[in-house]
Amino acid sequence: MLSNYSWDAKVVISPAPFVVNYGEFWLVTQLVTSNQLAKSVALLKQLPDIIEHGSTLKSRFDAIKNLIKVLFDVTKCIVQFKELPLQYVSPDTTPMSTPLTHIPTATYWTIRSMVACASQITSLLGMSYE
């Protein structure tokens, strides 16, 4: 679906579905102790086991959180680089040609990392401590 877009556009568009899923997961886990609706959603999504054993899963949550931070840092760098005036960023300019060749690779790994994070969140949701 993104094949017709430039690499910098792909890296900006692709986080949207991931952010929706992660945001819902994070919001429910934060509000589950104080909000009845969040408790109901947590039950539907089978989150009580995760919340109950949150201390043992802290390292996994922290790893996901750190990867998400890095993903958005890389995305921000790509966007800032692409926003530079054309007089500074030209494929013909030797010092600038190298960073331009790395944008597709950085975009690919950023999107792949988002998929890995989503997979980790899904695996956390599927865990059971019975």
Would you give an account of this structure?
- This is Protein SIEVE ELEMENT OCCLUSION B.
- It comes from Camellia lanceoleosa.
- The chain contains 6 helices and no strands.
- The protein is mainly alpha-helical.
- The protein has one domain.
- Helix 2 crosses helix 3 and helix 5 runs antiparallel to helix 6.
- The termini are far apart.
The end-to-end distance, rounded to whole angstroms, is 40 Å
**Helix/strand-derived class?**
mainly alpha
Beta percentage is under 5%
The tally of strands reads 0
Biggest sheet: strands, sense, closure? Answer: none
What is the element string, with H for helices and E for strands?
HHHHHH
Number of domains as seen in the coordinates:
1
How big is the Rg? 19 Å
**Helicity, in percent?**
over 70%
Shape: elongated
What's the number of helices? 6
Q: List unreliable stretches of 5+ residues.
A: none
User: What's the overall average pLDDT, rounded?
Assistant: 78
Give a short summary of the structure.
By secondary structure, the protein is mostly helical.
Please supply descriptive tags for the structure shown above.
130 residues, mainly alpha, 74% helix, elongated, Protein SIEVE ELEMENT OCCLUSION B
Which helices and strands appear, and what pairs or packs with what?
Blueprint: H1 7-13, H2 15-31, H3 36-44, H4 48-52, H5 58-82, H6 94-126
